Amino acid sequence: MIKQQFEIPAGYKKWTYGLLAVGIVAFIAGFIFLGMSKNEHDQTRFWAVLLQNSVYFLLVCNAAMFFICAITLAHGGWSVAFRRVPEAISAVVPVFAILAFLVFLGLILGHRHDIYHWVDKEAVAHDKILTWKKGFLNPTFFFIWTIITLCVWTFTGMKMRKLSRKADEGPMSAEDAKRYTWNNTVWAAIFVVFFALTVGSTIPWLWLMSLDAHWYSTMYSWYTFASTFVAGIALIALFIIFLKNHGYLEYTTREQLHDVGKFIFAFSIFWTYLWFSQFMLIWYANIPEETIYFKIRFQGPYRGFFFLNFIINFCAPILILMTKGSKRNYAVMTFMSVAVILGHWLDFYQMVMPSTVGENHNLGWFEWGILALYIGMIMFFTGRALTKAPLVAKYHPYLKESIIHHT
Amino acid sequence: MSLIKYESFVREPLVDGEKTYNQVTEDIVYTIEAKPTRLWYIGFYISIALLLFGVYSLYRDVTYGIGQWNLGKTIGWGWDITNFVWWVGIGHAGTLISAILLLFRQGWRTGVNRAAEAMTIFAVICAGQFPIWHMGRVWMAFFVMPYPNTRGPLWPNFNSPLLWDVFAISTYFTVSLLFWYSGLLPDLATVRDRAKTKLRKLLYGIASFGWSGSTKHWQRHESLSLVLAGLSTPLVLSVHTIVSFDFATSVVPGWHTTIFPPYFVAGAVFSGFAMVQTLMLITRRVMNLQDYITLGHIEAMNKVIVLTGSIVGCAYLTELFIAWYGANPYEYDIFFKYRIAGAYGWSYWLMMTCNVISPQLFWFKKLRRNIGFTFFMSIVVNVGMWFERFVIIVSSLYRDYLPSSWSLYYRPTIFEIGFYLGTFGLFFTCYFLFSKYFPVIAIAEIKSILKTSGESYKEKMADLENLSVEEFYAKTHDHH
Fold first, then answer.
1. What ipTM is given for this predicted complex?
2. Residue A198 DSSP class
3. By CB distance 3.0 to 4.6 Å, which of A25, A137, A173, B57 could disulfide with A118?
4. What residues make up the domain containing A245?
5. Residue A15 belongs to a domain
6. Contact across the interface for B314 and A174, Cβ inside 8 Å
7. pLDDT tens for residues B353-374?
8. How many domains in chain A?
9. Residue A398 belongs to a domain
10. Which of B447, B352, B432 minimizes the C-alpha distance to B395?
11. A194-207: b (≥16 Cβ within 10 Å) or e
12. What is the pTM of this model?
């Protein structure tokens, strides 16, 4: 018999509560010393950090569901042995959706024009470009589309997880198995199409690109997707390794880990491809309206982050994950997964901060504290979700394929 | 018992019918050993005729100059660059199938990879013609090569994406050719070993490089495939990326947009798969290969078509949205006055219909598995993808920044059209020769999946399928 019921180890609990404690303290201290501060820069910092983390980790956890749905549509069998892991990560989406929504409420109802310049009616009226964009950049549309998006992600994700639990019930006949895979593909397709309409296009424009309300780049949304997708896969890898180290997931072997490693490798390069294309085309054409975005990032105070971003998210994965051995090695994969998750967190940092806090950037107790809070929450809610379902969907039609998996 | 691979019963077989290894060889090599059919000759001669028309058109072009074409003051690139991008795009499916699907271990690629790779090579040859002959004084074509020379020395402009194209496409061509040919070696050796005539034995003997089928040969063959797949994968992305740079690096409204690279790649794969469908549907019928290129294969390719078509659609709408959102009057005018409306508005809507709207019908399983509909759609998609390039190029160019240089309505001359038709002739001449002298399906690769994915073999696995997971695990891991 395999171990199906996950019991949260004491060490895991200790870390979870430790991180949560640090995070909550940081949040409260941040609220008092920054959020309530008389200094405008402090207030901006408070909100910008909340925005960066709430959007980043929401998209990362939602990427785990995208991973499941994409593989379901492609009829991939190899990942079934650890499918419950991304499912558990995606169970965090409803929680993070609510948190992100609260942050948006605070930003827009609180008229934080230092974050979203377009919420300032006065400024919009005197700005020809913002007036032109009013049809898209306005609180009403922002809220309607955000609410729809968060609800549909939550609902379709839950539906996919519920369908997955059907594979715990009992053996399926050939007919049942076909119908089961079909149902899965239908819901996966709905998720993926909606994902394209949100993460693949509108949502990054609305939530992030509008921080620089004058600036635009058609690549922006796909770039955001690539950044969070690779981090989502890295998160999956971390949980697989953690569970393997505690004697769970008997059917998941180094073969699967190797393939997850290939995904991290490939999508790191894919991210770099989009990063380079966006940067190079704007640099090459040299149109001031467009280069302004990179002016502060590439030549200004964020120059260090600009290169760090490239080193962690491209140089490290391509060099370290190139060999077969590294992708099958728990230590290397753990190291690289942490690096990629933090690396793309930094990527979001350099997407959000230059447009909000600008020159007065910090990477201090509050930034790290909120990061700890979010990591603590991911550990808490994912851990809890893992205890709620058997770790292997025993009657999934593709499970046997996953057991005999050689990469 | 230890297994290398197990395939669920939910998956349909990749090879239909009761096949033995010998039967596979017989089925595929048959067409090489028999005389071509009448249909083959008809098709071949039509292709040759088209090719000759193309040669004549080029003769006019070289003798009288580019004035033979209707290019204008601002439309310096018309049909030729449209055709160039279109053909390069078509080539992408072959590389995607052979490289990316190999890395993803998609078993169904074995039914179509050989023909798709061949198609890639022919498509790239066709594509290459356009920039070469567009140079006008084609005897100066070697000027694009960067080497220390006595012309000043005069170097090509390394900042120009057109020069990057030279490198990208020649690398792509070389690697694709190597990939295709190294995959052919075991199959050519099969034909050699069965040869009844001396000449055939000699020629296939030379072509198969002394392949003996030893374990060492197979080992090297496998590692070579992996290395070439690893090299080709970035090439699939890079070639059309650089083609998109030809446009996107400029400050021409409608061209300068950051989404171009991935969107061009998706569009290229989209049109490439459509062309593979066109060819495979004919090939399987004419050569009786329905057992190897099954409805399942066709459905899988249609899924790729609906996926890439939708990605392209997402990019079209993104461009359109940002043209409004960006509040740049030039961008806005190009999209909203000269693309969706204006003199060439019809071509924009033709593109939208063919590339975005109609492929959505492939969400329906019935239509994905309908051969007639698939064939029709494969043509529609390629028409649409041709018009995509036409829209991008002509609608951005015919309205310059300077109204005094606004051009008249652009119509190609008979020799522009002739050149394009000529490349069809070249493409199909090559394809007909290929289908006569080479195994159109990778025999060795079909054999590698036969015992896990062949219909009759899957039936024999029923007792494994009926085991519980624990029993299955114990049984397949009993050597520990």
1. 0.93
2. I
3. A137
4. 10-403
5. yes
6. no
7. 999 999 999 999 999 999 999 9
8. 1
9. yes
10. B352
11. bbbbbbbbbbbbbb
12. 0.95
